[in-house]
Amino acid sequence: MPIFIDGHNMRGISPTDLEKIVNSPKDNFGITHLEVFYNESEDKLYCVLDAPDEESVWKHHESFGLKCEFITSVKQIKTAKDLKEEKFQILGEFASQLSHDLRNPLSIIKNSVDMMSIKYKDKLNADIFENFAKMDRSVIRMNMLISDVLNYARTQSLILEKYSISEIIQASLEGIKIPDGIKLVIPEHDFSLKCDGTKLQVVFYNLITNAIQSIGENNSGEIHILCMKKDDIIQIDVQNSGPPIPDEVLPKIFEPLFTTKDHGTGLGLPSCKNIIEQHHGIIRVKNNPTTFTILLPKDVEKLSSITV
Ligand SMILES: Nc1ncnc2c1ncn2[C@@H]1O[C@H](COP(=O)(O)OP(=O)(O)OP(=O)(O)O)[C@@H](O)[C@H]1O
Ligand SMILES: [Mg+2]
User: Fold this and answer.
1) How many whole angstroms separate alpha carbon 270 and alpha carbon 255?
2) pLDDT at 257
């Protein structure tokens, strides 16, 4: 059903006329919905209505002795939510192109750093060596941010192979420096699953990084990763001893671009959620202690959804 917006001069319209329009039966001429807005600075009346065609709008107005200045039909009136989604989509497309293009120069930097640290291994002092390691982790961090953008924009499909949970966690830890005061406990039990290992690496990278940031790099605390299996579902918990997530923050943490950090993008958790959902899994969070729980099917191709 088309939606029409029209506007007309208020001159000549008495308050009684206006009341008649607003209170008129809406099914006259097939009009099912009518809202009237008065723009004081223009001294104009605007209506938004649902009608089968323009003709019905003219007739509806004529029946009250009113003449419209114009009638414009619009296919759909966009809501604030539609506009937000559209903006995110454009942003996503732009960001994914940019991110994609950044990957090549980044891999050149990473290869050069790796090559130099191998070549000069015996000639470099510990200080320079640590600087190489920092450069390496920074490049990995940039790659993870790029992955967040690409995963948020959901531009890539899964590349499925067999992996074990511990090898995915180990790979994600390559890009993270665990601060001295923080103890990381990795799962005792290991399980294999069919998944996109590179994408799940991004999930653990984000969850562990968030856990470190929650405890605070200069504080002491613990991060426990637990892994268990029930039937064909693998459950992984990432717990940290940092302060609980405030009640007003908790419902927003998976929202794109939501962050409470000065330098956060707010794409980490939305990207994790997209990746887990692409695997037909579930990610959820609770406090006391702060725990992110992931449920993943052992074989994404055999299970299309998890019910809990
Ligand atoms: N383990 C956690 N403990 C407490 N709060 C958390 C934890 N993980 C996430 N949050 C909250 O959720 C918000 C969103 O997290 P998300 O990873 O999406 O973005 P970010 O960490 O702020 O930015 P980025 O991931 O780009 O560094 C965080 O800003 C923080 O407020
Ligand atoms: Mg984060």
Assistant:
1) 6
2) 85
Q: From 153, 159, 177, select the one nearest 92 (Cα to Cα).
A: 153
Work out the number of other CB atoms within 10 angstroms of the CB of residue 284: 13
Lowest mean pLDDT among 77-91, 95-109, 148-162, 290-304: 77-91
Q: What letter represents residue 174's amino acid? A: E
Structure tokens at 190: 């290991």
User: Which of 176, 212, 214, 261 maximizes ligand 1 atoms within 8 Å of its Cβ, making it the mutation to test the pocket?
Assistant: 261
Q: Is the CB of 211 under 6 A from ligand 1?
A: yes
Mean model confidence pLDDT for the chain: 85
Do 223 and 240 contact (CB within 8 A), yes or no? yes
Can you tell me the distance from the alpha carbon of 46 to that of 308, in angstroms, rounded to the nearest whole number? 49
* 137 vs 20, residue with greater confidence: 137
Q: Which value, in Å, is the radius of gyration of the alpha carbons in the chain?
A: 28
Closest residue by Cα to residue 193 from 223, 224, 169, 225: 169
28 against 190, higher pLDDT:
190
User: Could you count the other beta carbons within 10 Å of the beta carbon of residue 76?
Assistant: 8
Q: Rounded distance, CA 196 to CA 164, Å?
A: 11
The pTM score is 0.71
Strand partners, 224: 185, 239
> For residue 230, which of 290, 182, 296, 170 has the smallest C-alpha distance?
296
Q: Alpha-carbon distance 115 to 145, whole Å?
A: 23
User: How many residues in the chain?
Assistant: 308
Closest atom of ligand 1 to 265 CA is 26
- The finding on whether 240 has its CB within 6 A of some atom of ligand 1 is yes
- Secondary structure of residue 110 in the 3-state scheme: helix
Name the residue with higher pLDDT: 147 or 307: 147
Residue among 290, 292, 293 nearest 308 (CA): 293
